[in-house]
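User: Show me an example of a complex going from sequences to structure tokens.

Assistant: Sure. Here are the input components:
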Amino acid sequence: ELKVEQNPLFLSMQEGKNYTIYCNYSTTSDRLYWYRQDPGKSLESLFVLLSNGAVKQEGRLMASLDTKARLSTLHITAAVHDLSATYFCAVDMNNTDKLIFGTGTRLQVFP
Amino acid sequence: NAGVTQTPKFQVLKTGQSMTLQCAQDMNHNSMYWYRQDPGMGLRLIYYSASEGTTDKGEVPNGYNVSRLNKREFSLRLESAAPSQTSVYFCASTVAGEGDTQYFGPGTRLTVL
């Protein structure tokens, strides 16, 4: 059974600081996705990582994938309040387009 | 393009009542999905449809049925609602087999009393 674990579950950080969210998964996969969800809203796609060593960056967020370690990271650089949201990673089961989601990391950025 | 649309946005049911959640996409995607999200949790796959005319169970299919009406529309039916089905339901779609992201609808917030 594929399991996806994120840590931390909650993250409160000061504006301007850097931090990394980790996503570990239990079986082989080379497709991993990051989504953002604002309270009461739907999910918004952030990154699609489709191979070992893939790195994507958008603004203050950078995501990477290490398929051998079964680990993806979402790095936040110089956090701002607008990044406050819940971030989910999701792993494609055996490249079937069926996603297993992590439990999410709730990020709060304060002044 | 409207993307993925869902109706209704909110619904309150009594235990034992039935209802159908509707989902439509206008992106010509092959694959469509139904998820549920419970408070403080990630999304769990209920059913999916890899292509028009096919459906298959996900992680938590009990108590639900689906219909892939055509390429655009994928509905989720609760035959006899239970309080445990209180949740937010999201529909999603994607181009099959290309590793593309899934695009999500706005969600339906369902409460079963």
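The lines above are the inputs; the final block is the predicted structure for all two components together. The mean pLDDT of chain A is 94.
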